[in-house]
């Protein structure tokens, strides 16, 4: 298409070509393509396409350069601002988002629903209750806002950050009123997670049982529930949910078990972590073993300063398990690494290991 010189291309055409170049090739190719666009062409759309590519690839410095170029061109549309706010939200730089919002207000740029969501997120993340309420008051007659359960999820998080637990619970009850067939799986997961953050274990189980009656529970739901119970230190409950999941799933997803193992390790319950890891080793499934090995690496880091040096728990147990898994995986380098670490522990603690 680019060889047909008789074709008159618009700025929109160039923007589409630039976006496609960024997607199928690399950023450098997209930059070279931009440099070859005629200077007489209106480049708003083209620069926005390049900014979208930078933002998609989380290239903050380059994104800021393009945004500044758009400012110099007197750009006054919300698209680029929303892209930059989305990029800043990934890095947690809420001050930069606030600065962009002030700039939009000064330039009288109407951001629409995307900007509203970004602004609400900023207020909620900072526990700015006054800002949240003011923003909601401005949108109180918009049914797409007032009936959107995700808005109330953001509000619940904001109240929680501000230390207003009861107001947060009130927002969660509003979410439940707005659940429908299209939104229920993700809405229920949000309720489970947020009640866990509030430390309300009874509500966590209530919503979980409600979910089981209303929808087909998937791996994502089990993952979320076990994660929430680990947050609440309810390991007995998490173990029961894990067994329930194992009883109905033929394909083992180690990501779910890993949540519980990680929780055990963080609490120093190395014996329980080992028991669960051994169940994965027994299968000798390569995929499970690879994931299992990732968990052992995490245990390795967590147990460096552990004083418990028996085989069942502490650094020695982790190194021993690492050696076993490495052997099953056929990774000689890692096998020798963990054997060497195991010997280091035994040399530092000869009395304990004499009994072993």
Automatic annotation (TrEMBL):
Signal peptide: none
Presence of the UniProt keyword rRNA-binding in the record: no
PPR repeats by residue range: 77-111
Gene3D superfamilies with a match to the protein in the record: Tetratricopeptide repeat domain
SUPFAM superfamilies noted in UniProt: HCP-like, LanC-like
Key word Repeat present: yes
Keywords: Repeat
Similarity section: Belongs to the PPR family. P subfamily.
Descriptive protein name: Pentatricopeptide repeat-containing protein
Organism: Penstemon davidsonii
């Amino acid at each position: 298409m680019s060889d047909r010189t008789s074709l008159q291309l618009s700025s929109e055409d160039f923007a589409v070509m630039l976006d496609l170049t960024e997607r199928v090739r690399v950023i450098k190719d997209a930059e070279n393509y931009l440099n070859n666009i005629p200077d007489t062409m209106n480049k708003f759309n083209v620069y926005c396409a390049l900014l979208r590519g930078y933002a998609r690839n989380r290239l903050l410095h380059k994104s800021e350069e393009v945004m500044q170029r758009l400012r110099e061109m007197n750009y006054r549309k919300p698209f680029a601002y929303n892209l930059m706010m989305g990029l800043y939200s990934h890095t947690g730089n809420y001050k930069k988002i606030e600065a962009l919002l002030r700039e939009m207000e000064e330039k009288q740029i109407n951001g629409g629903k995307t900007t509203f969501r970004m602004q609400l997120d900023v207020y909620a993340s900072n526990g700015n209750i006054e800002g949240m309420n003011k923003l909601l008051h401005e949108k109180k007659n918009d049914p797409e806002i007032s009936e959107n359960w995700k808005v109330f999820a953001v509000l619940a998080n904001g109240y929680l950050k501000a230390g207003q637990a009861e107001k947060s619970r009130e927002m969660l009850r509003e979410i439940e009123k707005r659940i429908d067939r299209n939104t229920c799986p993700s809405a229920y997961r949000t309720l489970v997670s947020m009640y866990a953050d509030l430390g309300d274990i009874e509500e966590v189980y209530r919503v979980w049982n409600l979910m089981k009656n209303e929808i087909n529970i998937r791996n994502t739901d089990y993952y979320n529930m076990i994660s929430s119970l680990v947050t609440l230190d309810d390991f007995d409950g998490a173990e029961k949910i894990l067994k329930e999941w194992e009883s109905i799933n033929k394909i083992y997803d180690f990501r779910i078990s890993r949540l519980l193992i990680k929780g055990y390790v963080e609490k120093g319950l190395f014996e329980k972590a080992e028991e669960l890891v051994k169940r994965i080793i027994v299968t000798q499934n390569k995929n499970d073993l690879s994931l299992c090995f990732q968990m052992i690496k995490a245990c390795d880091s967590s147990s460096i300063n552990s004083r418990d040096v028996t085989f069942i728990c502490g650094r020695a147990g982790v190194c021993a398990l690492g050696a076993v898994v490495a052997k099953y995986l056929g990774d000689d380098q890692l096998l020798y690494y963990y054997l060497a670490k195991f010997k280091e522990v035994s040399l530092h603690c000869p009395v304990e290991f004499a009994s072993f």
